[in-house]
Amino acid sequence: MALPEFKKMTQDKTNIPPWIEFLNDEEFVSYSVTYKGKIYYGLFDEYVYPCEETGDIKYYVYDPVKQGRSPDKKYPVVMFLHGASNALMGIDCIMCCGAEQYASPAYQDKMGGAYIVVPVANESRTDEGRIDGAWSDFNIPYHIPVKGIFDGIASENPHNTGKRIVMGASSGGAFTWKLLEEYPDYFDGAMPISSGYLPDKKSLEKIGETKTKILVAHGKHDEMAEYDKCVEPRLSELKAMKNTELFLPEWVYNGDGGISSVCYGFEMGQHCMINWIQSNLMFDNGKSADEKLLPEGVTGWIKNI
Asked: What is the pLDDT of residues 130-178, one digit of tens each?
């Protein structure tokens, strides 16, 4: 589908979401995240990974040791994969993919330190507004440079790099699944978020036997990757996977406890679960989105891996 140029638009906060009729009387719509964005970009360094198969891939890295963490410890390498069109937003891609807050001192403290990595797909926009070159274009062998980036960071920092964790939303969520198919047992943790793609039954069975700790996150009112089409048909297989937990909330929220609305010409607040992920799946009052599954939020999930 055609996507608007988000960077040139202002969100419509007067929008009435199509799902508002399903809210209870005590529930309300929230049009803004409660964390402050675009303030941690300076903590990331920019690199380029040369790749003949896909073209060179730009990527950003937050290095915990460079930022003052102990050089005598190992830290997980956490990669965030952005959604379609986010590559065209320049450095704002760091925020849009959900990674920025994980470079903050507060989140780093909660994780015990972590490398944060943001690769950027070679996207382009057609005259019709369609995005070419997204992570979810499986005809492009993006898995080659992305694994190469993981391997490169590990080889350059052998005494400080630990577990490998990948998480992506929307197009990035689809690619997260693809990486799990391409490289069984390579990752220690993975979080596919709001993905419009799920592997077939045979592939899910194979992924389910690996060491990778997987958390599938998908809202039941997702406007773009519809739950009934993208999750429900494989729900029994997902539940059968020994290494997989499911976070399938009825509603996607912002930190203020309101149900999330994001409208840039069309409603996609429930698809943008990555905003809630960037709030650590915690509410501003300190309550977890899922006290049993994620008592310490995403930072706790990463640390426990």
From this structure: 999 999 999 999 999 999 999 999 999 999 999 999 999 999 999 999 9
Sign of CA dihedral 234, 238, 240, 246: negative
The structure tokens 């429930």 sit at 270
Are 204 and 237 contacting, i.e. CB atoms less than 8 angstroms apart? yes
Distance, in Å, from the CA atom of 297 to the CA atom of 217, rounded to the nearest integer, reads: 13
184: DSSP letter: T
Residue 73 token pair: 């410890």
Please state, in angstroms and rounded to a whole number, the distance separating the CA atoms of residues 117 and 103. Answer: 10
Pairing verdict, β 29-30 and 259-260: parallel
Three-state secondary-structure class, residue 39: coil
Whole-prediction pTM: 0.97
47-88 confidence digits (pLDDT tens): 999 999 999 999 999 999 999 999 999 999 999 999 999 999
Q: How many CA atoms does the CB half-sphere of 84 hold within 13 Å?
A: 22
Q: Using CA atoms, how far apart are residues 141 and 259, in angstroms rounded to an integer?
A: 37
- Specify whether the CB–CB gap between 87 and 60 falls below 8 A: no
Give the chain's count of helices (H) and strands (E). 9, 12
pLDDT bin (cut points 50, 70, 90) of residue 1 is: low
CA 252-253-254 angle, to 5 degrees, is: 140
Nearest one of 215, 123, 125 to 176, comparing CA atoms: 215
**Cα three-residue angle 141-142-144, rounded to 5 degrees:** 80
Q: What CA–CA distance (Å, rounded) separates 194 from 211?
A: 23
Q: Report the 10 Å Cβ neighbour count for 163.
A: 17
Q: Are strands 57-62 and 115-120 parallel, antiparallel or unpaired?
A: antiparallel
| DSSP one-letter code for 258 | P
Closest CA to 146 of 178, 115, 192: 178
3-state secondary structure of 189: strand
